[in-house]
Inverse folding.
């Protein structure tokens, strides 16, 4: 029998744990670090309970917990998960303790505040993935901005203030458009339903009935907000700055989870709520996604800063996810969901490894490296493994998602043109170029910088951080059905919601 309080427990544990961190005395950095690690680890264990009690044959929402919150406006505390949101919840709870462990030596000032903001960030991200009431969703969506703003602004690099303000303004602007669309949709729903509601499941029935002219504007408001978060070309300019200036833990969470909130929003809200508009705008959004794939890869090739190279690779990889979402086939949606997880693992691993070498050398310039394979062989192997995963080597996780997306977009009745697939596939080749070229320049050749001779290889703590990520990279690459089966019924339901309205759904 399902425990309907599990999701609420999942949210309360880090929330109360974060508040507990604030009352710990100053000067007890190790106690704070171990407490933060314990809080995030227990949260991960609770998410595993969700996974093991989840019924993958049920395409609907499970573990639902609902009670009235603001009765006059019919607003509820309403949470639940399906296969898609479960995988993203697991990704969030999996990466958070690893990022805290990775920052053990990298964060030395204001440790208590840093750990608090990381735990609060986890609460906000989890809330976004489990909310089934638009009002609750919007609160978590906005609340998540605050800890990330401080993480970049306090513990970031030299241009941290500029990067954090730019990140905040971009996301806030998109959020306001989404708020207008939420209110508009809820008010519109009060006519057929007879009452104002922000209940997502009720709005699923109302959204497709909205006249196409109004639906288009609502869709664009939502899509614009989510596209900024993805980020979709040409709304991506905040991302490289935020990544480069953020501390390692911030970069990992930003790439691993925060960007997925945008793609999750597209597949959870835009497709089922506005199916006519989704199909109308799918070719145009797919073109932007493909431009992002190629542009992100080409710009990554010419980067001198290894962290900025990995940041631009995110623009390219998330372009694949957006293409998969708007191809609206079973393969492409499944590929998009698994690619969200893959990107979180692969790019998260790359940012962690950049952080490892930066702590030792205090430089991210590719030209400052070369020949480190003999000096730090364990690090060099780990960097190769993460790079091959990001490239999409068959047998590793990246291949599965990209392959499914390309198959799905080729078959897509919505896109109805195989040129989308041809241009998107070029991104796979470009990814190999910029990542393997970066690896060659950093790891192979002669040691030109004599300061590198004295650096130490990865220690046990750093290996412990990387090992679980590498296990899942191989697991998804060899046996992806473990994860694809979780999201299968949820993906099918989204496709049916879109195509049923259009009367072109074919089983």
């Amino acid at each position: 029998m399902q425990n309907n309080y599990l999701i609420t427990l999942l949210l309360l544990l880090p929330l109360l744990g974060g508040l507990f961190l604030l009352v710990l005395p100053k000067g007890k950095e190790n106690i704070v670090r171990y407490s933060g690690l314990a809080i995030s680890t227990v949260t991960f264990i609770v998410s595993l309970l969700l996974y093991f009690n989840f019924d993958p044959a049920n395409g609907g929402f499970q573990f639902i917990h609902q009670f009235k919150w603001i009765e006059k406006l019919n607003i509820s505390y309403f949470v639940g998960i399906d296969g898609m949101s479960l995988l993203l919840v697991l990704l969030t709870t999996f990466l958070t303790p690893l990022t805290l462990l990775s920052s053990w030596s990298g964060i030395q000032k204001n440790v208590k505040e840093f750990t608090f903001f990381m735990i609060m960030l986890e609460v906000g991200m989890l809330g976004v993935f489990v909310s089934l009431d638009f009002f609750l969703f919007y609160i978590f969506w906005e609340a998540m901005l605050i800890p990330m703003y401080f993480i970049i602004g306090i513990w970031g690099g030299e241009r941290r203030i500029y990067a954090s303000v730019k990140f905040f303004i971009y996301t806030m602007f998109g959020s306001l458009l989404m708020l207008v669309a939420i209110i508009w949709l809820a008010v519109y729903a009060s006519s057929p339903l007879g009452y104002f509601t922000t209940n997502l499941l009720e709005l699923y029935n109302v959204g497709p009935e909205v006249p196409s002219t109004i639906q288009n504007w609502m869709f664009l408001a939502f899509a614009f907000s989510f596209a900024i978060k993805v980020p979709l070309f040409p709304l991506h300019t905040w991302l490289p700055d935020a990544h480069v200036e953020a501390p390692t833990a911030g970069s990992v969470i930003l790439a691993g989870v925060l960007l997925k909130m945008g793609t999750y929003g597209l597949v959870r809200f835009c497709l089922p709520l506005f199916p006519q508009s989704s199909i109308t705008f799918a070719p145009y959004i797919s073109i932007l996604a493909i431009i992002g794939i190629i542009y992100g890869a080409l710009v990554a090739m010419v980067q001198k800063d290894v962290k900025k190279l990995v940041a631009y690779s995110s623009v390219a990889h998330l372009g694949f996810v957006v293409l998969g979402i708007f191809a609206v086939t079973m393969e492409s949606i499944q590929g998009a969901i698994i690619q969200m997880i893959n990107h979180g693992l692969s790019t998260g691993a790359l940012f962690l490894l950049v952080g490892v070498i930066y702590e030792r050398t205090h430089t991210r310039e590719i030209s400052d490296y070369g020949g480190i394979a003999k000096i730090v062989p364990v690090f060099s192997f780990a960097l190769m493994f993460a790079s091959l995963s990001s490239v999409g080597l068959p047998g590793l996780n990246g291949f599965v998602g990209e392959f499914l997306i390309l198959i799905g977009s080729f078959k897509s009745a919505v896109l109805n043109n195989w040129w989308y697939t041809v241009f998107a596939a070029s991104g796979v080749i470009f990814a190999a170029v910029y990542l393997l070229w970066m690896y060659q320049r950093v790891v192979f050749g002669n040691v030109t910088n004599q300061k590198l001779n004295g650096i130490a290889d990865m220690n046990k703590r750093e290996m412990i951080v990387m090992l679980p990520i590498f296990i899942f990279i191989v697991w998804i690459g060899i046996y992806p059905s473990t994860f694809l089966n979780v999201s299968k019924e949820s993906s099918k339901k989204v496709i049916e919601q879109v195509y049923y309205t259009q009367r072109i759904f074919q089983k």
